[in-house]
Amino acid sequence: MTSLLAKSGLQLILVLLVAPFLSGIIKTLKARLQNRRGPNILQFYRDIFKLFRKGMVIPGTASWIFSATPYIVFVTAALVGLMIPMTATDAPLSLFGGVLAVVYLLALGRFFQALGGLDAGSSFGGLGSSREMTISAIAEPAMMLAIFTVALAASSTNLSEMAKVAVSQSWKFLAPSQMLAFAALFIVLIAETGRIPVDNPATHLELTMIHEAMILEYSGPYLALIEYGASIKQLVLMTLVVNTFFPFGLSSSWTMRGLGLGLVFYLIKMLLLSCLIVLVETTNAKLRLFRVPELLMVSFIFGALALISTFLF
Amino acid sequence: MNTLPVGPTFTLSLAAYLTGALASLATWRKPALCRYICCGSALAGAIFGGFAAVFGILQSTPVRWSVSSGIPFFSYSFDYDALASFFNLTLAILAGAVSIYSLSYLKEFEGKRNIGFFGFLFHLLLLSLAIVFTAANAFLFLIGWEVMALVSYGLVAFYHEDRETRRAGLLYIVMAHVDAGCLLLGFALLMQVSGSAEFASFRSAALQLSSGQQAIAFLLFFSCFGIKAGVIPFHIWLPAAHPVAPSNISALLSGIVLKAGIYGMARIFLDGLGVLPSWAGLLVLIVGVASAVLGVLYALMEHDLKRLLAYHSIENIGIILIGLGAALVFRAAGHPQLAAVALIAALFHTLNHAIFKCLLFLGAGSVLHSTRSRNMEELGGLIRTMPVTAFCFLIGAVAISGLPPLNGFVSEWLTYQSLLAGFGATGGLTRILFPLAGSMLALTGALAAACFVKAFGITFLALPRSAESRSAHEAPRSMLVGMGCLTVACVALGLGATWFLPMFHALTEQLLGTRVGANLITAHGWVLSTGTPHGGLVSTAAIAIALLFLLIPAVFLVSITGRQFARKRGPAWDCGLPGLSEENEYTATAFSKALRMIFSVLYQPRREIQAVFDVSPYFPKAIHFESEIEPTFEKRLYEPLKDLLLRIATRMRAIQAGSIHAYLAYIFITLVLLLLFGVRP
Amino acid sequence: MTFLQDPEFGDRIITLMAALVLVLQIAAVGQRWLVSSIRIYSLQSFLLAAIAGIIAYFNHASHIYIAALLTLILKAGLLPWLLERLVKKIKIRREIEPLINAPLSILISGCLTLVGYVVAQSFYHQEETSVRAALGHNTLAVAIALFLIGFFTMLNRRKALTQVLGLLSLENGLFLAAISLTYGMPLIVELGIFFDVLVAVMILGILVFRIREAFDSMDVSKLRKLRE
Amino acid sequence: MILLWLLIVPLVAGPLAFFLRKRSGMEVVNLAAFAVLLGLAAALAARVLRSGPVPLWNGFFYADALSSLVVLLTSFVALVCSIYAVGYFRHDERNGVFQEGEELGGGRAVNKLREYYALTPLFVFSMILVALANNLGILWVAIEGTTLASVFLVMFYGRETSLEAAWKYAIIGGVGLSMALFGTILIYYSAHLSLGTDTLAGLNWSVLVGNAAQFDKPTMRLAFILILLGYGTKAGIAPMHTWKPDAYSEAPIPGAAMLATGVLNCSLYGLVRFYILSSRCLGPGFASHLLILFGLLSMGVAVPFVLVQKNFRRMLAYSSIDHSGIMVLALGFGGALGVLGMLLHMTFHAITKPLLFFCAGNAQQQLKTDLFPEAKGGLINSMPLTGAAFLMVTLAITGAPPFSLFLSEFIILRAGFSRGYFLLGALFITFLVAIFSGFLIHIANLVLGPDQGLPPAENCRWKESSVAGLALVIIVMGFWIPAPLFRLIQGAVEIVTSGR
To answer: Do C181 and D185 touch (CB under 8 A)?
Structure first.
């Protein structure tokens, strides 16, 4: 019990620290790639801190849903952060639920975020939540299919199990099925974290924005919570991809040096993944909303192929 | 503990329903009294029924008793086994909640409608359901089945003044009679083999069924129960009939009457027809997937709150069938363990759907009750005027979207697990079907979430869109209590799933001859697993607790840091546009626009926009926008069928053209033909 | 005068007369004038009465005399008289063009006679080649033919009255069968049947009269109000 | 002796009613006569149950379980109809319905009523005679008698349309019955060939059935075909059914109800008697194929007319065509199960059908029309009792559980399956479903719907009591059949299957 608390405390801190850092890194890398200096890597921490210290205006038209949403978004994201293996194969709360629970907890957060978007009554909020729900809905099957492919390899949906299996046969990721699944999951990752070519986190043009439109009415600490939750969610998804496909250096136990080593490996892997993301973001233009399904269809096809290839090869 | 009085308590509940029916019919002249009698006796019946069901579950041995009647084939024989007690439990929960709810819901009938007749039908519905779930005699089952259909017709057509209601009722009763016909043929076939109308004899006769007979019987029963459960493509009656009924009845219809179809499938496919070949299971699975996806897709396009819920019933029935189909396939492939998991998934989802769909319909009922409108475009902002209803509806919405930690999540999780297991358990190309079905299930879940964001957000949040919704009022107490019970049930079944699920052990043991491995529940009853050593794990209770724990840092962050500035309320920023009002709110139509475009292949949407200008084309005075989607099945399948039938009928009426010479000629020709061909041996 | 005791001689005569009845029936098919069709009918009935008498004589079956007498009185006398009165009353002398023109309908009635014989064929027992059997299957054939032709007249003619006549001649076929096959049904049955025929004709007469009043025509093909 | 009384009572009641002057007198005479008749019928049934068949005048009259069942049903229908008739005709008289047919010989109201009240007992008399006659010739005479009596009922209102209906009924019925007579003669002939010349007893069923086995087979075949067509015409089996819609929609409701139940039963009874002979002579195969063919044909013919129908009185006629088809089909399926199904169906149908006619009658008298398009629905608002009963009896007559006709149809289906006719069984069910749909859709649209502002019209206790009482009987019969009645039916089944 105490060990459980200790582990989760440790990983919680890790999550809370790393998530903004990662967002900052991605921002900076992106700027660099576009020959800008870009913000400081720690800018995201500053923003969060600043927002927490500001006051906020709650729309008069909003109900308690509006105020409950930020907490729910943050909490679900944080809990998910504790349910996935980051540095060690067995996640602190892996007993609480496997990958399905992770996906559905994120869905819970999204559900309330969409409600929060509608609550203020402004048409932008509604627009945002409509698009968010739509895209996540059509992203879902592809994601599930890719996850299934991995889960079938481990014959379990328990993330720790999956990680253990992955570690035990660490070159398996070269198998075509795994590659295809990775491609599928990567596309889903782009869609879910609201990045180009699906969504542009940097814009506030009402025609293009999705996630930003939803949280348009939020300000101050609530906004901070939501942004923080979003970046944790991004961290979680990236970790999921990284650790299921490239489980190098995942320590099999919670010893000090195992964790240290695991952390180093983990950060390197995350860095590489974010480089990949940045590369995609800078080399692509944002798609029209109604082109997004085609992209996700591609990822669905990848998932299906991955599945078929698992039982061909 | 073999001495629990299952039979007597059950009989008591039947008696309560029967007396309730007669009493409310007798007292129809005194509406208030009649109302109390109606709801009271229904509640009493529900309580007795609930006790009987609990007893039946506790003592895991079936209770059978039979009373003969003078009529051939027909005996009042009951078999109160695990399956029966499970469905009776579901019935009892819903009946109790609805009868509490109705106490003040029926108040508006007083003086306007005949409460006595309503109560009569209401009780008969409950009675027939109890009989259907318990009958062990084909003939008794048939009678219960058809009475159920006729009575629900009476209730659907209760507001018979308006045309839509009458049409819906007739569509319903005709479909119901078609399925009764299939049922009749199926039972006649089984009786032909077994020589008796008792279910017990079917069990023994199942071994003598030739594979052809088995297939025919399966198809007959599947189409029958499919129609009753409203699976695609037999669903057309459902979204027509359920919304037009009084709301408490819609709740029962969607909550439990549909489940009669599920009960029939479970009873016949797992119990009556022997081990079905795996194609049967796959058929059920595929139909389930189709119903789930199409059901939710159609639901998304609905702006009539109750019809939206009705389409969601189709979706959830689909999810249940996925589990059931998987169970059948595993049974055929000889994996009773997996079959048990899949069956538990299906039945648990049956119970969950019964509860939250009933809850949602009751919520919609109280919205309708206070705003007189089912059209979401006229609602909005009700969370302020009717907070309790809104909260209950929200819980129901979260549950039906299958989000943790509520009950919908648990059953969908189980379904996923069994589908995953299916990949390993079956061979050939069929194994691919399972993960694909899983991904379609995921799509369904996500779309359902989107749909309920719309339903709740547009109905309860933001600004009221009409005078009625502006002047809405909270529902009277008993309606709130009724909804409250179901809300509590949703949460309890979600968090307490691990404590509740073991009740299925007896059931799986009876139907599949096995119980899910002892480690269905692990970690001191906190964690739910799939019974396989390395399978998935989940613990909703733990998740809930963890969420609460994690709330601490969040609250801490907000309250500590943001203390010095007060949180003020102000007008919505809305990108700086002034004067936010209901005119420029987001509408339900707009919300579903994106999906309407994406799935336009299915919907074939049609829209027309007329703008009225007075000065210049840049300043329209009024814009009339209307958009509709094509009801594919009605238009492509049923309409042509109906037209064909009527055309043939109209042609044939030429026989009776009034000419006596023609009439004589018919007889003459018949006579001559028979003389020429009939006489020779 | 021995042949007057020989039943075989009687049988031959009966066969001959039956043939005559058939011929009259076919003649009635082509007939246009109402009165003359009535007369043909009465002649036919007379012949039947004669047949009955002969059978009664040769087989010493006394109760058939009564049947013969009844036939003579009712069918050859009373009914034609009633019908002619009816014709006079409603002042319609002539049948309008039947649905199928005369030559064709005569041809058809020929075919129907054939049908009668085909059907009767299956009754021909090789084992008993006596004249009785031959008579049996001959008269049965004639009876069936009479029946069918009468039926055909009913659905061929437009006038209510001729339909009644058709019905009556159809009954004649039955009567022929009854007496010649089985030497008459039990008397009481015969009486009942006669009574019924009488009443039937009464009722039909009333109906014809009323129809004439209501539609001022007797053309039953005009009765087409009741239809889908 | 009891047989004699059964015949005398109606035979006396008719002329008695004719010579009475006041309407109430005639009503009383009818009611009393039929009440007594029902009592006698029940006594006869009890006696038959207790001590086998009851002969009279060395077997000239003869009552076994089968015939006493028919007598019972006939007298029940007669009583119910006469109760309803009182209210029905009083309403007609009040609204001067009789005057409209005046110039076509309609005549004054009292005369019309006298016509009805004098004819009905004779009509019933001939139906009873059908059941009691042992001599097949007399059977034929009696059935012809029902036709003659009922022709007057059909042209009762003296409208042009009723003349037309009467004419068609008389002509088609006449032809049909002459076929039946021909068949009877041939039966006599074949019996005569085997038994040698014989006087009266040569046509007695009880004698014939004993040695039907050695009858001349070809003659028997021909005879059965003619009988089937002949009595089939009276029973309204397709394609001889064409007179039914006209006759039923023109006759006054009580008369029509008796036509649809009494006459139907009688002609089917005659058919059954000959079926027994033929199946003992030729074996069951020959008859049953023909019967199945005609039964399904009748059901199939009824379907489109029920689906697309403007006139609810005509619709009732098609329903009775459908039901006679069902009974014939059941007889064709044969076996103890099939015959049981047929006789149960006959019983339940005879109990259920009158109510359907009564409801239609009330509706017609209230709406002043028998066309759906003109009715515009909403009947239940002005006539709650009739409306509810109408819906209920619609369900009952289309064989929906828990009403008793469902039981008989279920048994018939079982009979078909047990003979291996699986596809025919499926077809049977399909027709039933189609008929149900058409019927319910039309009646529901007539009964339900918004209030048309008609005055509440349920103020005649004769009509209401007959409707309510009959409805009660139907509901009870759904769950419980009186044991003696069931024993009687089983006795009848015994007779049909084993010939004694």
So the answer is: yes
How far is residue A24's CA from residue A44's CA, in Å, rounded to a whole number?
6
Six token digits for residue D458: 């349920």
* DSSP calls for D270-287: HHHHHHHHHHHHH-HHHH
DSSP state, residue B275 = S
Residue B56, in any domain of the structure: yes
CA distance readout (Å), D152 to A120, B269, C217, D120 = 81, 59, 21, 10
Do C and D touch, counting CB pairs below 8 Å (3 needed)? yes
Domain ranges of chain A: 2-312
Q: Which domain holds residue B651?
A: 632-678
CB contact (8 A) between residue B446 and residue A217:
no
Whether the pLDDT of residue A184 is over 50: the answer is: yes
CB contact under 8 A, C228 and D305: yes
Half-sphere exposure of B635 (CA within 13 A, CB side): 7
| Residues paired with residue B77 on neighbouring β-strands, in sequence order | B66
Give the separation between CA D472 and CA D470, rounded to whole angstroms: 5
Residue D106 pLDDT level (bands cut at 50, 70, 90): very low
| Closest by CA position to B181, among listed D332, D401, D342 | D401
List the single range of B265-274, D44-53, D452-461 with lowest mean pLDDT.
D452-461
- Paired residues of B75 in beta bridges: B68
Report the alpha-carbon distance of residue B366 to residue C194 in Å, rounded: 78
CB contact under 8 Å between D400 and B146, yes or no, is yes
**A141 and B CB contact within 8 Å:** yes
Q: How far is B274 from chain C (nearest CA, A)?
A: 51
**B396, B490 in Cβ contact below 8 A?**
yes
Residue B458 forms part of a structural domain: no
Largest CA distance in chain B: 111
C193 touches chain D (CB under 8 A): yes
Instruction: For residue B14, give the DSSP letter.
Output: H
Q: Which residue of B has its CA nearest to C152?
A: B668
- Is the Cβ–Cβ distance between B502 and B520 less than 8 Å? yes
Please, is D217 exposed, middle or buried when counting C-beta atoms within 10 Å of its C-beta (0-12, 13-18, 19+)?
middle
Q: Is the previous residue joined to B617 through a cis bond, with omega within 30 degrees of 0?
A: no
Query: For residue C149, what are the contacts with CB-CB under 8 A and spacing of at least 6?
Result: C25, C26, C29, C109, C112, C113, C169
Query: Is the distance from CB of A96 to CB of B542 less than 8 angstroms?
Result: yes
Same domain, B120 and B45: yes
ipTM of the complex: 0.91
Answer whether D200 touches C (CB < 8 Å): yes
pLDDT digits (tens, 9 = 90+) for D178-197: 999 999 988 888 887 777 65
Tokens of D112: 């019309």
